[in-house]
Amino acid sequence: MFWVLRARRSPYTEGAVVSVIPIEVVGMAVPVPGEAPLMLLREPDGARRWLAIMIGYGEAEALVRAREQIAQPRPGTIELLGDVLSAFGQGVAAVELTEVRDGIFYADLVLVDGTRVSARPSDAVALGLRQGAPIRVAEEVLDVASVQLEVEQEAERPAADVLDTEAEVARFRAELDGIRPEDFDL
Fold this sequence. Notes:
Elements: E1 20-22, E2 24-29, E3 38-42, E4 50-54, H1 57-67, H2 77-87, E5 92-101, E6 104-111, E7 116-119, H3 121-131, E8 135-138, H4 139-145, H5 159-162, H6 165-177
Parallel strand pairs: 5-8
Antiparallel strand pairs: 1-8, 2-3, 3-4, 5-6, 6-7
């Protein structure tokens, strides 16, 4: 199913989305092994509606690092963008998830001087988390795209480990190396 939605904009707010509400980053999920991860956002108050936005593995790793404030020896793309904004005397004042169109979510970075920059939600949220900016969503987006989620099992490992496919393959290979023919009931 695809949603078509445009958040209402008022000519009196100079392009700002009307009716935005706070939303918090709850975490990441991989619903089925091999499928794309989901960025999970939840309304902190009221109906506590969920947004599940499909993103890539690289974006998921950047989000986990940003959420946990994990430093890297060299800046990644999100950190670099924050450094560039800072070098120009700017910063992120807020992140707003503004619309859903043809099943694709859109977001804006709202800079300190009021400039709005369109961005992918995963990048915008990661940069917002790194800079301590509030994350908000147009209420119309939640009205149309919120989902009911039930957590079946929480990962016992940190999210960064869950998303590390190469480590998963290495662990599986190590287990296979330890299997002997006697381990099978024939």
